[in-house]
Specification:
single chain, alpha/beta, Collagenase (Catalytic Domain), two-stranded antiparallel sheet, 5 helices, 10 strands, disordered N terminus
Length: 244
């Protein structure tokens, strides 16, 4: 449910080639750590090096921009409002709202009414079909019930100091029971807040598969989020020169 990203970077000479380290360093900021939000730092029982500290940080995937860390708070979230049609849209809104409230205990979040102003947009629809190229014969289209993607962009509010930022898009379909819908919203929002990977343990929200009894946020989920927000990232920092 985290298939990839669209990065707004200058193209390399060949479209089949990935940007080189030199190109990345030229067009993206140097990785630096941000100050961890107080709400996330609060309640940490042990240091990461302690035998009592448990997480799955080793499963998190850095991106071309580094770890997907938010540095401007509160993070603004838009989700589609309920409609008057009898399509269970109110159940969907209830599930998304509950997931936002759970994560809000650790990272400052706020709901906005206009998608263009949001850092994270959550849409009540089935994700776009993906091509599964792992098939042995020919690529196959693979359907998902939920999916999260990110894209990079440059904030030019201050022309002489453009900032590299990111946005998240979540597609969350409605073809699930209320409990599973809320679990999916909780899981996808975890990706959008920076957990770009999956836990190998079924008692964690960010476990890679759906379970019979969806768990609440675990200490391992929060410990992993804390580790992520201690890492350097290119996001939230000024690029070395304006992009043309």
């Amino acid at each position: 449910d985290i298939p990839g990203a669209k990065a707004q970077l200058p193209p390399s000479r060949s479209t089949s080639q990935s940007p080189t380290p030199a190109q990345i360093d030229r067009f993206l900021p140097v990785s630096q750590a941000h100050t961890m939000p107080a709400t996330l730092a609060r309640g940490q029982a042990a240091e990461p090096q302690s035998e009592y500290f448990d997480d799955y940080f080793d499963k998190i995937q850095p991106t071309i921009a580094g770890y997907l860390i938010w540095s401007r708070f509160p993070v603004r979230i838009y989700f589609e409002p309920a409609t008057q049609m009898p399509d269970r849209s109110q159940e969907w809104v209830t599930a998304v709202t509950a997931a936002i409230q759970e994560w809000n205990a650790y990272l400052p979040l706020t709901v906005v009414n206009v998608p263009d102003t949001a850092d994270i947009a959550i849409w009540r629809r089935t994700p776009p079909l993906q091509v599964d190229r792992s098939a042995t014969r020919q690529p196959e289209l693979r359907a998902r019930s939920a999916e999260t993607r990110f894209n990079l962009w440059v904030d030019r509010t201050i022309p002489e100091k453009p900032i590299l930022l990111h946005r998240m898009t979540i597609w969350l379909g409605m073809g699930q029971t209320q409990d599973y819908l809320r679990a999916a919203a909780r899981h996808e929002l975890g990706h959008a807040l920076g957990i770009w990977g999956h836990s190998p343990t079924a008692t964690d929200v960010m476990y890679s598969a759906q379970v019979r009894q969806p768990p609440p946020l675990s200490d391992r989920d929060i410990n992993t989020l804390r580790r992520i927000y201690q890492q350097p990232t290119r996001l939230g920092w000024a690029i070395p020169q304006p992009l043309n």
